[in-house]
Amino acid sequence: MQKGRSEGLFLFPVRRKLMGITLLFLAGIVINWIISPNTVWSCALCVLSIVWGVLRRIHRKNAFFCALAAAAALGCLMASLQMNIHDRPTNGKVYFTGVVDEIKNGNRVYVRDVQAGTIPSRRVLVTLMEEKDAPRQQVKPGQKIAGIGRLYEQREKRNPGGMNRRLRALADGYELSGYILPGWKAEGKAEFSVREMFRRMREACFNHFEKVFGQGAPVFQALLLGERWGMDGEVVNAMRMTGIVHLLTVSGLHMSLMAEAFRHILKRLHAGRWMSFFVQFSALFFYAGLTGAAPGTVRALIMAMMRMLASCRGRKYDPLTALSASALVMMYMRCAIIFDPSFQFSFFVVLGMILLEGRMKAWFPKMNRAVSSSLSAQLAVWPIQLFYSGYLPVLALPMNILSTMILPFLMMGGMACALMGTVWPDLGCFLGKGLAAITGMMQQLTLQAAELGVCRLPAPYGIALFLYMIVLALLSRSIRYGKARSRVCMGAVVLFVGLYVPRFHTGFRYVQLDVGQGDGALLRKGRSAVLIDVGPADSTDVLQYLRTEGLEVDAVILSHLEQDHAGALASILKSEIAVGKIVLPENAENPGMIVSNMLEMARVTGIPIETAAAGDTIQTKLADFEVFSPTEELSGSNERSIVMMTQMGTQKIVWTGDLPADCEMDHPPDCDILKVAHHGSKYATSREFIQKTTPNTALISVGRNSYGHPTKRVIEDLETEGARVYRTDQTGCVTIYPDGRVKTYLTHSSSNTGNSAYTVFHEGS
């Protein structure tokens, strides 16, 4: 391995050339995702870079930068081939045929070779629906399945801080998902599938763990097999808030313990180097398959294999090269995996430990190895933690140190009890239940630690993560750079801070989020927000926005209690975000079971619940809301929607919930911004109401629906009266500032040519 110094572009390490190639391959994928260049140009650039590099080598010149250019072009090309081709969803229900490729869980299966009115290039994920109380039909990989169904496209990112479900799906190897109605048929012989074999073995392990560990089985199913679905949600949330939820995902720590255990056993048996390599790799490969082969597990498997190969060949193991190789292999196989949070967490943690642990030892010579490793990992992972969660666990360091000391005992003890339970069931169950009691105490400790709360901060921009990675590399003693190391490090820090500080903006603004077919919005100033509806139960858009922006909730105002407006309240109440109070319409009707449970949860946790009717004023820290409806004579859920108004700078905003047209007040308030009622339904927002309110800007919160929302009549009436209309299904999130400026998250131009005083800014997705 060369150890020269960088003469020109000193940002690229010369001792770790594979790391530079990996970073450029990753950069190519990101560039393709941002600007989607032509595939032909990417291919041409890749070929030219390779040819140029070969010619330079023939003339005995350095071709490293040619390799970097080729890596970037190859990453861009691979991303074009894997991510820029969109599978077409079906238009309505169609006759569906395909071959079962893999059983995900229960009645959720992956299907390949699909024919469903379109020809997807990838496998799809479908739910096989059954008649109520009918016995479940068993399907096996290789069988041909046929029935009536529908395939939907995944929802891409439509709000700041939102989730791009298409990228998450592509990282899992599919793009479209949907269902097949009852009456489907599965025919043909099953074919052998390694994944199905591992799935059945995993299910057998689940059942065995229930016998051995009793009520503590879900913890060991998570610790040993990476399946946390059986665990108490409150405990999982507490582990997330204390920074140790990664223990429930089989990762490098688990694989390292397994490898170390096998190494000691094989050493006692005096096995040869290559025999040890074969046995260890086979055992780790089997364990990775048994646990579902999560990205972190695959990364750890590749690194362990390279470490064992280095030992067999008498070479020095370089963890940074091994990490780069594992990332390169995984990205080459599936480019979109870089957008998987578990992939990012896994690599940032290991990268931090590799790059910073030596520096920690230099700064603090007497620091314990467990402390330095945990501290390095925490320093590396905090931007990712903020990026996805919007908070930093206060006790992450001590809880991780404690868990690192206890995990080997629980993991090896759990495996020993499980194996013993197959030979001596009574003894295995006795020891297993004793071990489960220890995990119970750990869960109680975690719950108490979570009560100390978290540090909530805005999430950094994506580019800041790349800059932070550069800072980590420049701080490391593991990589040699040119003479400008300190200057570049300081520049990267300044640029990172310059990009992050603006996230603490304190300006007033109104945000209409795209929550699909529902309503969710907020008024925000500084770090406080007032929510006006929260979206449907299956939506996390409001919660993700609050986390990304680091906001606290002063009040939640529910216009009425239908699930498309109030259903997502549970996700907010169960999160780490504190809620000041909840405001409902007076004598609100038809809350439904889900909403009733949420309100009961709020009462139990001590959140004040207030009601409002016509003539009241809802007081919050940000603004006061004047209420115009409901009045006493109105009855019905939609009819008793809260209609209210507040002022933001020079802008008056009116919200109307799902108020029907025949329940509109005779003298509605004049406004600048109108939140259109009932998603633009033809039964709401009469022309007379529009003429009296005289809005300049009209917002319609709407998603895919079968009701015809928004109706043409409402849009035409709004435009006729001079209102600029914004629909969230077209614009994504809409942000309005106190001076009337409007910014849409997706590129969109309003069809209205109204008031030119309103400037429209576009932010691409």
Question: How would you describe what is shown here?
Answer:
The structure is a single chain. With 765 residues, this protein is of the alpha/beta class. The chain contains 24 helices and 24 strands. A nine-stranded mixed β-sheet has the order 14-13-12-11-10-9-22-23-24. The protein is globular and about 90 Å long.
Gist?
By secondary structure, the chain is α/β, with parallel strands linked by helices. The chain contains 24 helices and 24 strands.
Keywords:
alpha/beta; single chain; 765 residues; disordered N terminus; 7-stranded mixed sheet; 24 helices; 9-stranded mixed sheet
The biggest sheet, with number of strands, parallel, antiparallel or mixed sense and barrel status, is:
9 strands, mixed
Proportion in helices: 40-55%
Q: Please give the alpha-carbon distance between the first and last residues.
A: 42 Å
Helix/strand-derived category reads: alpha/beta
Radius of gyration: 29 Å
Report strand %: 15-25%
Enumerate the strands of the largest sheet in spatial order, edge to edge or round the barrel.
Answer: 14-13-12-11-10-9-22-23-24
Number of helices: 24
Sequence stretches where pLDDT stays below 50 over 5 or more residues: 1-14, 749-765
How does the overall form come out from the CA principal axes?
A: globular
Name the assembly state: single chain
Q: Please state the average pLDDT score.
A: 86
Please give the number of β-strands. Answer: 24
